[in-house]
Batch of 2 targets.
Target 1
Amino acid sequence: MLEGRDLILATRAYAKEYRGRSWWHLIITLVVLAAGYTGVFLVNPWWAKVICTVLVALTLGRMFVLYHDFLHQSILSNSKAAKGIFTVFGWYMLAPVSIWERSHNYHHAHNCKLYTSSIGSYPVVTKEKYLSSPWGERTVYLFVRHPITIGLGYLFMFIYGMCIRSFVSNTGKHWDSIVALVFHFAIGTGIFLLAGWWGLLFGFLIPFIISLGLGSYLFYAQHNFPGVRYAEKDGWTYHDAALSSSSHMKMSPVMRWFLANIGYHHIHHLNPRIPFYRLPEVYKAIPELQKAKVTTLLPWDVLKCLRLKVWDPVQQRMLSRREIYA
């Protein structure tokens, strides 16, 4: 039975992209995205616009996973054309390269490590820490993890967190955060001038609210789910965090396509150099990876994840707000 470093080594054979396949996935994603935007602006029935808007939102989610893989150097590395496409896409999605790469790489290196995992992830504190904190700190903590805050990830996680906060905290290092804000809202302004309020609503605001809200929830639920494990610094290991602290989010074939296999998140954390299109292959080939903690996008599983608030080291599980005071 493969464990620890041996398990990581077993995945290395799959950490190799097929360059033609990577380009195919990128091109077909851009084609679907262009088709969705064409429908939003040129199709007349409102119900058809709604369908195209949802198509745009979900395809933006797929494109974001490709962007994420590119920055992990698992697809299209050293391609100047891909770098240009993804840099502009990062601005458009309010996730400029400097802040996303820094915070996400830190997240991988400190996944579910108590007290140091909040950079690039949702904060988690112990029950004792929460109860001993001032009222204001507890309020902010619960606000950040509130379902409405997560659902409005477009505003709180991306506009504020990725761009405004990062730019203010380190202007020199994260200058591209202000570039992203200007670029993003320049596109929105252009859409409004050309297509009016309905164009702005269906072609800009709704797609971003859906795609970035869904993205914020996925990022939350991949490490905040029933059965997740958090560890102190001394007891933390990279491979244990990948398998015990990263979920396998089962999805329908349609959602697996739109979210580019991001549900195999435990495998991605074990080896982020594996291209997204090879994750199912790894899952089937290595039985040990089929035993990960599972969640889904079904409403009851979403509610179970959103109820989790603090970590209890005694019970070794996450507690709901009601359980904190039990």
Target 2
Amino acid sequence: MNSKTKKLVGVGMFAAVVVVLQLLGGGIKFGMFSISLVLIPIVVGAAVYGWQAGAILGGVFGTAVLLSGDAASFMTIDPAGTIVVVLLKGVACGFFSGLVYKYLSRKNRVIAVFTSAVICPVVNTGVFLLGCYVFFMDTISEWAVGLGFDNAVTYMFIGLAGVNFLVELGVNLLLAPMIVRLIKLKLK
């Protein structure tokens, strides 16, 4: 089997894992949204197959989020904005995770993995928050007032994204040593 075929099969397998984890992880919710357990296979796929694969896996993640109904509360407000934000945050987290890994792995693979594992949820959450600001700020302001928050920005960081981000970041950091081992296996 040539290298292109191996890469295609590998990315396809990671994509299947992303879909399954997104659908299974949909039941684990903190607040309005489920925890993104799919960030680990995105980081591993991006590290093993490159930033392009990371972007593809992130796109698969975004598509699975849209199809699973996890973005339904935003879809009723602005469907086009929801699609843009969900797909962009997925593609961006995989792309940047892979890019960071590519450049840092030249110096130190372990640091590259840990940094990529941090970058992935940071970008995912950052693009989500930026998208909330651009597309949904009026609704989020109403939600914030209804829930007793001082302002919409505080609600966005604490109520919408805070706990989810911390859990996703913690899971990535906890599993980063496993990512290092998987990459070493791939490189043998």
